[in-house]
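Researcher: Structure prediction, please.
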Amino acid sequence: MNGTLNDLKVTYDQQGYFVLKDYFNADELMQLKQTVLLFHENWQKDNHYFYQREAFNSSLITGTQYLANTERLQLFNFISSPKMSQIIEAIIPHKPAFMNTQLFFNPCTKEQENFGIAIANTIMILRGNNKPLKKPR
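Model: Predicted structure follows.
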């Protein structure tokens, strides 16, 4: 991790987000990716029409509908890991709470706006940051 936990908190307080590069190792990310992709494949089967036409996210990754308990436990262990907790507690020092899980993805149709950017901008504006994110090129 580049910088200190305090640097992350300052960045988060100023911008409403921060980026951590190379914080998790390749094995940690591969395990998470496999579980999330399994969820996404199962979710797509039930939501094919919606996914093809308008979806930009899916929710309840940690729910019971699309993953077995083993995969759900992997996600909860990742979310509550000491590595994650160290960052969360530095950013949100007073009673951080886990609310839900969502997977944002690029829409299938090129005409559809990338809502991940729109949602991030909305959150930043609500937090009082008037510098919107730019769409990726």
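Model: The radius of gyration is 17 Å.
Researcher: Thanks, that helps.
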